[in-house]
Write a structure and sequence with these properties.
Blueprint: H1 3-14, H2 18-43, E1 50-54, H3 62-66, E2 73-78, H4 81-90, E3 98-102, E4 115-121, H5 130-140, E5 141-152, H6 154-157, H7 172-180, E6 186-197, E7 204-215
Parallel strand pairs: 1-2, 1-4, 2-3, 4-5
Antiparallel strand pairs: 5-7, 6-7
């Protein structure tokens, strides 16, 4: 894949747009599903909870969240108009329980202490002011809530040909240090490994990733 195609891929991984964005959204859902399902499991969702996902993509996994407990309310938030529309279309059947919100990427348009559980997978590379953004997440999370932050580790991500174009990479220690600069006070760390199909072709690669389970 030449440099121009890699730049287009990187741009669409950050903010999928148009027909190409729909295609990349489907690919992201397929390649990230393992990380996403493990993140959902780490939330320990209970009945009657309000769940927020930051950067939902096409949200092909929403059913997996709603099935984990009774009377769950899911909100997905994204900067991509394309993914916002795709997610609403794919989850029309869940419209009573699932709500999708489009936003600018920095301030979360919710009241303080709205959500019981918040999670995000593979979005932290694009946060412009990470500590400020973590404090926004802290603000909208309930006092006893849980925030799960999942990301590919720097050593793995550096091997991918598209990450030089707009990705900020972290290893686990760097991410822990960043979280410690925010208002959050407690976290547990789980490092994982999985075999996944590459985003640039059909080869299988070993992905090393981290799940941080973070509390107030």
């Amino acid at each position: 894949m030449d440099q121009e195609k890699l730049k287009i891929l990187a741009r669409n991984l950050a903010n999928p747009e148009g027909e190409k964005g729909i295609e990349i959204g489907e690919m992201m859902n397929a390649t990230n599903i393992g990380m996403t399902l493990e993140s959902i499991k780490a939330l320990l969702i209970e009945d009657n909870e309000q769940i927020l996902e930051i950067g939902h993509g096409n949200a092909g996994h929403v059913k997996s969240i709603l099935n984990r407990a009774q009377n769950i309310k899911y909100t997905g938030i994204d900067i991509s108009v394309t993914m916002h529309n795709e997610a609403k279309k794919l989850n029309e059947v869940f419209r009573e329980q699932a709500n999708f919100v489009l936003y600018g990427g920095e301030k979360l348009p919710f009241e303080d202490k709205t959500f019981d559980k918040i999670f995000t997978v593979n979005t932290v590379y694009f946060w412009k002011q990470p500590v400020d953004y973590l404090n926004e997440i802290y603000r909208v999370l309930k006092k006893t809530g849980t925030f799960v932050l999942t990301f590919g580790q720097r050593d793995f991500m550096e091997k991918l040909p598209f990450t030089p174009f707009g990705f900020i990479l972290y290893n686990t220690d760097e991410m822990e240090e960043m979280v410690s600069k925010s208002h959050f006070s407690r976290m547990t760390v789980s490092e994982r490994q999985e075999e996944v199909k590459s985003k640039t072709g059909h080869e299988t690669i070993t992905r090393n990733y981290t799940i941080l389970t973070i509390k107030k």
